[in-house]
Amino acid sequence: MNSTLLLSIWLLPLLLATLARLRHAHWLLPLATLPALLAVAILPVGTTVSLPWLLLGSELGLDETGRTFLGFSSLLWLIAAVYIAGSQHAITESGRFRVFFLLAMAGNLGLIVAQDMVSFYFGFTLMGLSAYGLIAPASSRRARRAARTYLAWTIAGELLLFTAIIFLAAISGGALTFDALQSIPRSPFTVLLLIAGFGIKLALPLLHWWLPPTYAVTPVAAVAVFSGVMIKAGLLGLLRFLPPGDATPPDWGLLLVLIGTATIFFGVVAGLLQKRPRLLLGYSSISKMGVLTSGFGAALAFPSAAPGIVAALLVYASHHALAKTALFLGLGLIECSGRRISLLIGLGFLAFVLAGAPLTSGALAKAALSDSLSQPAPVLVTLLTVSTLATMLLMVRFMFLLWTRRQRRILPLPGVPLLAWLYLVTLILVLPFLVSGIDRLMINVVPVSLGLLLGLGGMLVGSRRSRANVPSGHFDL
Amino acid sequence: MLTAHWLYGISGCLLLALGLRTALLHDMLLQRLIGINVMGAGVFLVLITVAYRGPGIAPDPVLHALVLTGIVVAVSATALALALARRLTAEQDDG
Amino acid sequence: MAETLIWLIAMPMAGAVATLLLPRQSTPIACVTAVAASLVAGTLLYAVSEQGSLSYEIGGWSAGLGIALRADGLSALLLMMTALVMLASSVYAGTYFTKAAARARFWPLWLLLWTSLNALLLSGDLFNLYVTLELLGLSAVALASFGGKFAAVQAALRYLLLGLLGSMMFLAGVSLIYAGYGTLDLATLTLAVEPEPVAWTALALMSAGLLLKTALFPLHFWLPPAHASASAPVSAVLSALVVKVAFYLLVRLWMDVFADLVTPAAAGLLGVMGAAAILWGSWQALRTERLKLLAAWSTVAQLGYLFLFFPVLLALPPGPARDTAFGGLVILALTHGLAKAGLFLAIGIIQQRSGHDRINELNGTAQRLPATTFAIALAGVALIGLPPSGAFLGKWQLLAGSFASGQWLWILVTIAGSLLAAAYIFRVLGHAFGNQSYPRHSVTIAREEWPALILTTLAVAGLGLAGAPVWNLLESGA
Amino acid sequence: MNFDATLPLLVLASSLLPGLVIFFLREESHRLRTLLNLAGAGAKVILVGIMIWGVFHQHTYLTRWTLAPGLELVLHADTLSVLFVSLSTVLWLVTTVYAIGYLEKSPHRSRFFGFFSLCVSATIGLALAGNLFTFVIFYELLTLATYPLIAHRGTPEALRSARIYLRYTLGGGAVLLTGAVWLHVIAGPNAFIEGGVLSQLPDEYHGQLKAIFLLLMIGLGVKAALVPLHGWLPEAMVAPAPVSALLHAVAVVKAGAFGIVRVVYDVYGVQFTSELGLLAMLGVAAAITIVYGSFKALSQDNLKKRLAYSTVSQVSYIALGTAILGPIGTIGGIVHLVHQGIMKITLFFAAGNYAETLGIHNVSEMNGVGQRMPATTLAFSIAALGMIGIPPIAGFISKWYLGLGAVEAGMAGWVLPVLIISSVLNAAYFLPVLYRAWFCRPAPAWPAEHIPAARYETAGALLWPPVITAGLALAAGLFAAAPYSPLEWADLIAQREYQL
Fold this sequence. Notes:
The complex is a heterotetramer.
Chain A: H1 2-19, H2 28-31, H3 34-42, E1 47-51, E2 58-62, H4 64-86, H5 95-113, H6 117-134, H7 141-171, H8 178-181, H9 188-202, H10 211-217, H11 220-230, H12 232-241, H13 251-272, H14 277-301, H15 306-337, H16 341-355, H17 361-374, H18 378-404, H19 415-435, H20 445-464
Antiparallel strand pairs in A: 1-2
Helix pairs in contact in A: 1-3, 1-5, 3-4, 4-5, 4-11, 4-15, 4-19, 5-6, 6-7, 7-9, 7-10, 9-12, 10-14, 11-15, 12-14, 13-14, 13-18, 14-15, 14-18, 15-16, 15-17, 15-19, 16-18, 17-18, 18-20
Chain B: H1 4-25, H2 29-51, H3 61-94
Helix pairs in contact in B: 1-2, 2-3
Chain C: H1 3-21, H2 26-51, E1 54-57, E2 68-71, H3 73-96, H4 100-122, H5 126-144, H6 150-181, H7 186-192, H8 197-214, H9 223-229, H10 232-257, H11 264-287, H12 291-315, H13 320-354, H14 365-368, H15 370-384, H16 390-404, H17 408-432, H18 446-465, H19 468-476
Antiparallel strand pairs in C: 1-2
C-alpha cells in the first residue's frame, strides 16, 4: 500500500503524460498531484520502501524534510496545474506543454521521495530536462535562445552532479541510499562538485546566467513553478547529499555562508535595476536562495545546531515557495487581463509577506531562522534583518513597476485561475496563524518599515529622474 | 680414353644442348620444333649409350623401351604441332 | 580392392575408345563413363582410408619391365579430386558444346586426358610417369586447341612446344637416374638415392621440366594465354588438374624420393619463386580486363602458395608437425582444384550468355545469373583463403609453419597475396552486383549452373568443414 | 550426441538453414519467405531461452568438430556468449519484422534475406565461438555475409561503400588471422577460458605476446571502428536501413567489440593484460575514438551519417570498459554491449522510417516530424536520450558503471573527463535533432511522402520494431537491478571472470 502510494507519486504524472496530448486533457494536470497530496496527508513520517528491482536498487521514503518539501511542492504544482487548466494561454493550451509540465512534476515530486542517489538523480534530471519544454522554445527566437541557455546550464549541472554521485558511490563501496551515506566523509572535490551542481539550480551568482532569460520568456504559470518549487530542489539536494555532521567538513559551511551572503545582496541589487516585474521577482528568488544557502552553510558549520537550523530552513523554504508562486500567478493575472486595483491589493499583500512583514508567513519564517541561528551565529541574524530591509525595498520597487506599468486593454479575468490564486493568497494569509501564536509573528516591524520608507523615498526621487536603464533579461555587473 | 661409348654420350649431350638452345632462342615455329626434335635425339642417344652393357651382352631392355616410347611420343607430338601450325596458317590466311 | 587401380585407368580409356567408335552416342557414353569412373575413385578413396596404400601389378609382371600401379593417401585424394572435377565438367560440357559433331570429337580426347591423369597419379615408376606425362601433355594440347579460335590454337601450340621441352628435360633426368642407380621404380629409388652429383643433376633436370609444366614463376608465361583461350570445361581441367599433377610429381620427388638431397637453399629457391608467383600472378589478375585471364593469372598465383610450403616443410622437424603442415599443402591444392574448375565453368556461362568476359561490363550479372555469381563468389572465397574454405585451413597451416620456423617473409607474402586475391575477386563481384533487371528464378539452366555451384561448394564447405579426413588419409595411406 | 552438445549447433542452424533455403526461393514467394524467416527467428528465441536458463544453472553446452589436426571448431555457451547471443537473437527477430516491412515490393528479396540470415548466423557463431580459431572463422564469414547486404542496392554509391567496407574488414581480418596463427603457434589452441590462460607462459614470450595483442586489436579494431580504423562505418550507411540497424547494433561493430572483450578477458586475462601494460593502450585508443566520433557526429547533416559517427563513439565504450581493470568497469563495458545495441537499433529503425515514410534523410529536413510521426519520434527520442546517458534509460546504467569502475580503478582522472565530454557532445548532436522534431514547425511538404498520413503514421511492420526496442532500452535501464536484466547478467559475467 505504502509502496504503491510512493511509487504513484512518480508514476501517475508519468502515465498521465502519455495522455496529455489528447484534446481535452487539461484536467489531468491537477489530477497528477493527488498521490503526492495523499502521501503528505496519510503516510507516516519515516515510511520507506525498498524497490531492489528499480534502477540500480531504489529506495523511496518520506522523512521529515521530504514531507515538508512534498507538502508545499505538491500543493503548488496543484495550484499551478489548476491555474493552467483554467487559463486560455496559447502556449499552455498546447498538448506539448502539458506533457512537459507533467514530466517536470513527476521529476520534482519524485526526487523528493527518493531516498537513494540514483533515484534522486533520475528525478532531478527528469525535472531539469522537462522544464526545457515549459520555456516553450518554439514561441520565439528569444525563447529559443533562452531555452538553449537553460538547457546547457542544466546539463552542465547534471553532469557535475553525476560525477559527484559516482565519487560518492565509490567511497561508499556501492551503497546508494542517503542513509548509508550519512556519516561517510565527502572528499573536498566531491563537495565542490555538489555545490556547483546544485548551485546552478539555486542560481547562485555566476551560476545564474540561465535564470533571467528563462524567466523573461516562459509562460508565467511555468515561471511560478520554476521560481517557487523547482528551484528548491537545489536546497533539497544540498540537504540530502551534504548532511551536516561527520559527512561534510565544517569549513565548507563557512564558504557557503559567504556565498549565500553574496547571493542575498547580489539578488537585491540586480533586482532593483530591473524594469520588468518578472525579472525583479526572479532576482528576488536568487536573493532568497542566498538566505537558504547561508542558513545551510551555518548548519554545516555548526553541526550541533544543525537540526534546528534545518527545521527553520524548511519553514523558510515553504514560506518562500508559497509567496513567490502566488506573486508570479498574480503577476500572470495582470499580464493577461490588465492592471486592476483588486489584483494590486493582493500583490501588495504578497509583497509584504515576501519581505517578512509582521503577522505574515514571512515573519514566521524569519523568526524561526533567527531563533535557530541566534545561538551559533548571531551575526547571521543581523544579516537576515538587513536582508529583510533589502527585500522590502525590492518589493516597493516591484509594486512601483506594476503601478507604472503601461496599461493595455482590460480583459475579463479568467475565473478558474483567479480562484486558484485567491485560494493560494488566502492560504498564505491564514497559514501563519494556524501554526504559530500572534506574538511570534510580531517581528520585523523596524526593518520592514524602514525598507518601505526608503523605498517610497527612493521612488519619489527616482520618478523625477530618469532611471538606470538596464536591458531586461540581462544584468551586467 | 675416348671410347665409342663416350663419343655417343658426349655427342648426345651436345645435341641436347644444341636443340635446347634452338628451341629457346628461335622465334620461328618450325625452327623450334626441329630444335626440340634434335634435343630429343640427343636424349635418346644418351639413353642408348647408357643402355649399352658391353659387347655380347644384351642391352638394357628398360632403356630401349624408354627410347622407343620417346620416339613415338616425339613423332606424334611433332605431328600434332604441325597440324596445329597448319590450322594457324590457314586461319591467318582466312583472316 | 587393388583391382580398382586398374579400373581407374581402364574405364576412361574404354570410354574414350567407345566414344570414338560410336560418335552418335558419345555424350551418353561419356556421361556414364564419368559417373562410373567417379564411383571407382570414391571406392578407391574408401579402400585407401581403410587399408592403407594399395598396389597392383598389371598382368602379374613385376616392376622393372611390368607396369606397377600404386595408390597412397595423396594419390587417392588427387584421384578423387580429378574424378569430381572431370565429372562436373563432363556434365557441363554436355550442354556447353551445342553442336553434336563438336561433342563427338571432344569426348575421346577428354576421356583420354582423364585416362592419362589417372595413370600418372597411379604410376609408381619414372618410366610410366614419363609416358603418362607425355600422354597428358598431348591430350591437353589437343583439347586446348579444340574448337578454338586463332588465339587458342596459337596458345596451344606454344603450350605444346614448352610441354615437349619439359618432357625432354624430364626424360634426360630419368636417363641419368637409370644410369646412376639402375632402377626407375620410385620405391626402390627412395632407398638407393645418395646425395651425389648424378642425383643432383637428375633431380635438377626433372624439376626444371616439371616446373615448366606447373608454370612456376618465371616459367609461367605460357599458362595465362593457354588457359584463358581454351573452351570453358577445358580451361577448368587444365587449371585445376593438369598443372596440379605436374606439381604432384614434384612433391613426390622432393618430399619422398629425393628427400635426402633437398637442401634448405633449394627449397628456399622454390619458396622465393613461389612468392614471386603469388605477387606477380595476383597483380596481373588484378590488372587484367578479361575474366578468363583473371582466372588464369590467379592459377599462377595459387600455384605459388603450394611452393611456399617447400621451405616451410623442410624447416619443420619430421613428425607430426611436418605431417600437419603437409596436410595443409594437400588441402590447399585440392581446394584450388575444385574452386578453380568451378570458377572457369561459371565464367564459361557468363561468357556464353553475355558474349564476352570483359570485367568492366559485367554489371547486373548477379541479377541475371545469381547461381553462377554465387559460384564465382564461393570460388573467390576459396581463392582468397577465407573460412570456411579448405584453403583457409591450408593457409592457416602455412602461416603456422612459417611462424614456427621463424620464416617471416612467407607470412607477409601469404597475407599480401590473400589481400590481392580479395581485391581481384571483389572487383568482379562488385561489378556483378551492379543494378539491372532481375530474374524470376535463382537457378536458370540447372545443368549448366549446377556443376560450378557444386564444385565451389565442395571447395568451400566440403573441404573446409569436413577437411579433417584429409589428414587422416595422408596418415593412414602413407 | 546428447542435447547439451547439440544445442549450440541448433542455435546456429536456426538462422543458417532458413537462410540457405531462402536463397533458392522464387522472388514472389513472399509468404513462404516470411514464414521461414519468422519461424527461424522464433525457434532461435526459444532455443536461446533454454540456453540462458542452462548457463545460469552451470550447464555446459559444447559442440566440437575437428577441422584439422589441432584446429577444432568449438561452439560453447558461457555467460558472455549467452549475453551476445540473446542480444542478437532478440534484435534479429525485431529487425526481420522491420526488414519485411521495409523491403516490401523491392527487388532481390530472396538474396537479401538469405544473406541477412547468414549475417546473423555468423554473429551467433562468433558469439558461441569457444576458441580463437572458431572466432576467426566466423569473423571472416561475417565480413562475407555483410558485403552483399551493403552492396544490395547496386547503385554506384552502394558498390563504392561496399568496396571500402571490404577493404577495411578484409585487411583487418588478415591482421587478425596473423595474430591468431601466431598465438596458436606459441600457446596452442586458444580456448576461451574465463580469466585467460596466457599468464602461465614463461617471461621470454612477453614481447611476442605484446606484438600479438597489437595485431589482434588492430584486426578487431577495424570492425569495432576504433579510430583510425573506423573509415568504413560512416560509408556503410548507404545500406538499407535494416542492414544499418543490424550492422551498427548487432553484427559487425559488435563483433569487433565482442572480440576485444573476449581476447582481453578470456585469452590474455585482464590481470595479465594489465601487467603487460596493454590495457592502458586499449583505453587510450578507446578514449580517442569516443571523443573523435562524437566530434565528427556534430557536423553531419545526414541523419544516418550522424548516427554512424555516434556508433563509432559509442561502441568504444565497450572497449573502454574492458580497459578499466576491476569488475565494475567490466560490467560497464559488457552491459553496454547490449545497451548500445538496443538503443542504436532504435535510432536506425526510426531513421529508416523517416526515409521510407517521408523521404527524410537529413537532420535539416526533420522539422516538426514529431507531429507527423509521434511514435517513431518518441522511440527515437528515448534512444537518443539514452545515448546521452539520461536516466533511467539504458545508457545511463552503462555510464554509471564505467564511471564508478574508473574511480575504483584509480583511472578517474582521464576516464571521467572522457565520459563527460562525450555526454556533452552526445547532447550537442542529439538534442538539436529532438528540438527540430518536436518543437519546430513542419515545412509545407515533406521531401517525398510515400505513405499518406492516414490513421497510422507508417506501416505497422516499420512502426512496431522501434517502439519495441525503445521500450527495451527504457526497461533495461529502469529495471536494471531486476533478475535476468542485462546488468545482472553482466554482473554474473564479471563475477565469473574475476572469480569472485
